[in-house]
């Protein structure tokens, strides 16, 4: 174990920040770190929008159902982006829409945005800053897109709040190593997988009990069952298709 | 700039490795780093398959069109995975298929897998190892899935080769900072974006000229136009739908 792996494994989401903006130098170091991530076939299929405007942050916070989106040192919006490839089609005089519209291209753009974002997260954490991914941005991408002037072939995939941590949170135990990591093929023994989930439930119950003085003791599987009981963001398929992605 | 950011920004793909397998301790450090990444609503929607079996690696290399998949210190397959949530549905006796099948859930699983992968990449690099993402794994996911016994609601999204670098490669210049990073809203001035792409083309031409003693001088936009001229992996929409993802 080295100190870099310690930093990686010490990650926890930070939700409350000092009222202290990041410097342009910090933002540049974080974004250039994002840009250093691998990118599928060198496609660089993402854009990062940094939001400083307070009124916009407030609106995005309302749409995300998340006050942290308003109060932080900086707010980044990571977008899956093949819009620049539309411009390239004009520059190079080729028709590339049939390729941009595939589910494969949609996956490439999402993966590129996520790889870049994780580099940004770690760069920020290495500077002593805290971060939180905000999937709530996807609650209402129609409105988000209006506020951010999002063009065709761009989908905002999540936000990231960054700032000076006001407090530390504890690290949530992850699924057991053996449950996530399979050797040579997918572990097909469902009873073993369920047994691992039951063991993990006990760890998660203990974690909540300790954090809440016994007030909360839900299991992971019950959380997941509750989360997926009702489909959410069911407009997504229509939205991404309208943007020009995932069509065929 | 600190040494973490230097490591992040020093990334380059490594394609040739010593014939020297990673230790189980190294693999564990890398996978546990992957597991420490943020995960959407704590869903942990990914699985990592580590392939040691030589015959399987050879077959995966053929399918990916990529010899590096066979010759490396270790091979990881990152999968978007909501299969364990199918098991949870059984354990908790709830119907969660309608939620698992949404495009939103598909995006969540891809993002989770990618965030975990980038942590794995950096953990490996911090150990002096090199890595390369292999999108070529998606050339033929039907066959890949047979070899790896992939169940429903799992999609292998890419592979990662890891190992002791045989040689260093040079770092490819990325798109200009100003082209990737927009402030407060998406940069809607297409002529400015195109101008930035033209400037970047000169940088990329120079990069290839220097690397190939003048033999190669293609631009980035011509590369991208060539790449997207013909749609690839057009089976993807059917495949992911068959796996139970991205249905509505």
From TrEMBL, chains A, B:
Residues 8-164 form the Nitroreductase domain. The keyword Flavoprotein applies. It comes from the Bacteria. Pfam families: Nitroreductase. The keyword Transferase does not apply. Gene3D superfamilies: NADH Oxidase (3.40.109.10). One of its GO terms (molecular function) is oxidoreductase activity. Keywords: Flavoprotein, FMN, NADP, Oxidoreductase. Belongs to the flavin oxidoreductase frp family. NCBIfam families: PRK10765.1 (NF008033). This is Oxygen-insensitive NADPH nitroreductase. The lineage of its organism: Bacteria, Bacillati, Bacillota, Bacilli, Bacillales.
């Amino acid at each position: 174990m080295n100190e870099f792996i310690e930093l990686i494994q010490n990650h926890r989401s930070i939700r409350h920040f000092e009222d202290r903006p990041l410097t342009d130098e910090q933002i540049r170091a974080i974004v250039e770190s994002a840009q250093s991530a691998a990118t599928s076939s060198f496609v660089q299929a993402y854009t990062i929008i940094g939001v400083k405007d307070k009124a916009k942050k407030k609106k995005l916070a309302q749409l995300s159902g998340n006050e942290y989106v308003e109060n932080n040192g900086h707010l980044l919006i990571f977008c899956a982006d093949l819009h620049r490839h539309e411009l390239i089609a004009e520059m190079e005089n080729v028709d590339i829409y049939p390729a941009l519209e595939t589910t494969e291209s949609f996956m490439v753009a999402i993966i590129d945005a996520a790889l870049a974002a994780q580099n940004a997260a770690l760069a920020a954490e290495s500077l002593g800053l805290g971060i939180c991914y905000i999937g709530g941005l996807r609650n209402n991408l129609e409105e988000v897109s209006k506020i951010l002037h999002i063009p065709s072939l761009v989908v905002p995939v999540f936000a990231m709040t960054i700032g000076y941590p006001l407090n530390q949170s504890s690290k949530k135990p992850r699924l057991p190593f053996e449950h996530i990591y399979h050797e040579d093929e997918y572990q097909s023994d469902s009873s073993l997988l369920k047994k691992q989930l039951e063991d993990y439930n006990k760890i998660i119950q203990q974690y909540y009990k300790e954090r809440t003085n016994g007030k909360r003791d839900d299991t992971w599987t019950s959380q997941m069952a509750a989360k997926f009981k009702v489909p959410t963001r069911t407009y997504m398929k229509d939205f991404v298709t309208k943007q020009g992605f995932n069509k065929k």
